[in-house]
Known about the structure:
Blueprint: E1 4-8, H1 14-23, E2 27-31, H2 35-43, E3 47-48, H3 52-58, E4 61-64, H4 69-76, H5 82-85, E5 91-94, H6 100-112, E6 116-119, E7 122-123, H7 125-131, E8 134-139, H8 142-155, E9 156-163, H9 167-195, H10 200-207, H11 215-219, H12 221-226, H13 235-252, H14 257-271, H15 282-290
Parallel strand pairs: 1-2, 1-4, 2-3, 4-5, 5-6, 8-9
Antiparallel strand pairs: 7-8
Helix pairs in contact: 1-7, 9-13, 9-14, 9-15, 13-14
Amino acid sequence: MTTRIGFVGLGVMGAPMAGNLLAAGYDVVAWNRSPGPLEALVEAGARPAGGPAEVAVEAELLITILSDDAAVRAVLGGSAGAIAAAGTGALVVDMSTVSPALARELAAEARERGVGFLDAPVSGGDVGARDGTLSIMVGGEAADVERARPAFEVLGSRVTHVGGAGAGQVAKACNQVLVAVIFAGLAEALVLGSKLGVDAAAILDALGGGMAANRIMEVRRDNFLDHDFAPGFKIDLHHKDLEIALGAGAEIDAPLPLTAEVQQMLRQLRAAGHGDEDDSALLRVAEQRAAHRLGDRPPGQAG
């Protein structure tokens, strides 16, 4: 069993994931660009490092979860990156959401250096990260998946090896398309029902027992009902993820019209300064379009 785990990226997702590995008894050495989350993890028992390469030198298994392609390439790639610093036989697992092309590029670089590489993006949001119930979509060699499996099972409740290098990122792009469309559809449905005079909470209760039931309806229920858009997963990041999906679709002539529409809604929110809010803030767009806020009296209803 791998006992020395390096962890780079202690954001909304990464911090609780690293904490769960510590709680499971792993020796964790970590680095983060901003010091606050790293200091908190060190207080919980992790060891700090001076940078990603220093983390890689100490780790048998290096996990990264970062914001985008540029950040992942800067941390892992090139002669000064963590892949180059990792020892022969080490395993690098990138759990960020990035393009399949970058995942394949980094896998090839790792292979040339005698280092294993997996692209293993996750779904489940901040709740899944805290609870250790993430869905982990893995691309890479089967033997490397098995090496990482004990750590994966601390972090998630479902581990799916979907194929070779880059396949994990393909699965995540599909996931993000579906999640975005569900968030937008749920926002529109709630505004429709509310403007027709039915309580939004009652609508969620009714829909939760039928074919429309979904995890988002359960986990983000209060966000919608209370207009609480504190981020579990930020609009800015989902916008980035849909750019990946739309770009991949363009490369293979796969039309994604629903995805493109939700992307415009996310872009509207970003333009209005809401990019750091949760996906449930799509409710803002649905309410604006309908000139109705959940909880308001519908038109024509007596006060």
